[in-house]
């Protein structure tokens, strides 16, 4: 028996991190080189949202974590050493989708002690 990977999650771009949402048992995210993809585990043929990293460089996102307190807040650590925090625009309902024309909001950038 041959098992084929799900076409939605199996992609050519490398995935550096994956984490379940603390507030939504059906939601998880994958961190890729230049974006975070948010998925609904009940339907993984297509991500429900993509959070793009807009920093003008080809920067690599190595780690991403959900807020343990807020359903739509994600922090990501990039190769440039900056920590970025986004508020996603997925619905507050489990399995919600980003509405047409909505953008994710970059809330905070922390440069550490550089």
Automatic annotation (TrEMBL):
Entry keyword Repeat: yes
Compositionally biased intervals (Basic and acidic residues): 97-107
Record keywords, A-Z: Repeat, WD repeat
Name of the protein this chain belongs to: Uncharacterized protein
Membrane spanning residue stretches: none
Segments for region (Disordered): 91-114
PANTHER family xref list: WD40 REPEAT FAMILY
Keyword Ribosomal protein: no
InterPro entries reported in the protein's UniProt record: WD40/YVTN_repeat-like_dom_sf (IPR015943), WD40_repeat_dom_sf (IPR036322), WD_repeat_RBAP46/RBAP48/MSI1 (IPR050459)
């Amino acid at each position: 028996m041959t098992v084929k990977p799900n076409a939605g999650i199996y992609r050519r771009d490398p995935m550096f991190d994956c984490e379940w949402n603390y507030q939504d048992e059906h939601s998880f995210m994958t961190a890729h080189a230049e974006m975070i993809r948010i998925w609904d585990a009940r339907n993984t043929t297509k991500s429900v949202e993509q959070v793009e990293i807009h920093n003008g460089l080809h920067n690599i996102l190595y780690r991403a974590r959900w807020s343990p307190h807020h359903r739509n807040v994600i922090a990501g650590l990039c190769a440039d050493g900056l920590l970025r925090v986004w508020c996603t625009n997925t619905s507050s309902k489990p399995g919600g989708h980003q509405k047409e024309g909505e953008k994710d909001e970059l809330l905070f950038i922390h440069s550490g002690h550089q």
